[in-house]
């Protein structure tokens, strides 16, 4: 199929882009790796595409005030290959699992957050790390915690006249450990289940994805940080939070089993890293 007819706009400033969005029936185009397939299948029929790829300042990739700032036009592959990715290890570990290299060469970090696919890696990483999403609209800029940004499957708190201008991740601190893992039928496929974890001392944050309509975050205490010692807790946790229906690729019980195993393994690994 081909996309339905639409108008194309390449604004010169963020304010101009917001003005076009405020006119209604418009969608933001950054990397296009999620939007273009939707258009091609005519699952979406916006009247106007607002291309933000060349807007000044949206290509920023810098560390400021202890945070890694990633602009809305920064490609996933650019961040993956940047030396700055090492400042936020969990992001660096997750990026190679996002689709395929060719898709990451066009897809943007913020675009993945705005698309809010339940099986996407980056929304879960952002939620695990307590990242902040920067949003601009007619009423100015606001900062939305990543854990509140995604409100459901393919749904965010972004207004129709707003656009994401960037995301900020806190730089890793000494004594922190991280873990990331997912199970998919093939590398680059949507995850059947996945986890992103951060550990400091005996405290841990876990974000699960692919098992609900949005990333599910839990704060945990690691009384026994070995994989065997963690399994009873992670198995119980998995059966609590997995609420997606089964499909041809795996039942709800199978996904819970995957999540329990992955969570225990990555929590134990992150704990060892934190205590080196």
From TrEMBL:
Keywords: FAD, Flavoprotein, Oxidoreductase. It comes from the Bacteria. PROSITE patterns: FAD_PCMH (PS51387). The keyword Oxidoreductase applies. Residues 1-174 form the FAD-binding PCMH-type domain. Coiled coil: none annotated. InterPro entries: CO_DH_flav_C, CO_DH_flav_C_dom_sf, Diverse_Substr_Oxidored, FAD-bd_PCMH, FAD-bd_PCMH-like_sf, FAD-bd_PCMH_sub1, FAD-bd_PCMH_sub2, Mopterin_DH_FAD-bd. This is FAD binding domain-containing protein.
């Amino acid at each position: 199929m081909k996309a339905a007819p639409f108008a194309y706009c390449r604004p010169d400033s963020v304010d101009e882009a917001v003005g076009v969005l405020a006119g209604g029936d418009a969608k933001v185009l950054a990397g296009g790796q999620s939007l273009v397939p939707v258009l091609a299948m005519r699952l979406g029929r916006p009247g106007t595409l607002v291309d933000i790829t060349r807007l000044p300042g949206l290509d920023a990739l810098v560390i400021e005030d202890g945070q890694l700032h990633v602009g809305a036009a920064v490609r996933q592959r650019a961040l993956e290959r940047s030396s700055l990715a090492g400042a936020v290890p969990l992001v660096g570990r997750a990026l190679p699992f996002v689709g395929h290299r060719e898709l990451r060469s066009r897809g943007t970090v913020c675009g993945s957050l705005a698309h809010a696919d339940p099986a996407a890696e980056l929304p879960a990483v952002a939620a695990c790390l307590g990242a902040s999403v920067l949003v601009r609209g007619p009423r100015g800029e606001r900062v939305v915690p990543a854990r509140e940004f995604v409100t459901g499957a393919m749904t965010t708190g972004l207004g129709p006249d707003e656009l994401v201008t960037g995301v900020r991740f806190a730089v890793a601190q000494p004594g922190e450990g991280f873990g990331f893992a997912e199970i998919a039928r093939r590398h680059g496929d949507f995850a059947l289940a996945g986890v992103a974890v951060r550990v400091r001392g005996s405290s841990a944050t876990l974000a699960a994805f692919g098992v609900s309509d949005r990333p599910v975050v839990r704060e945990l205490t690691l009384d026994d940080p070995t994989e065997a010692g963690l399994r009873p807790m992670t198995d119980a946790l998995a059966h609590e939070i997995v609420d997606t229906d089964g499909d041809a690729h795996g039942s709800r019980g199978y996904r819970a089993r995957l999540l329990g195993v992955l969570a225990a393994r990555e929590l134990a690994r992150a704990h060892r890293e934190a205590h080196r």
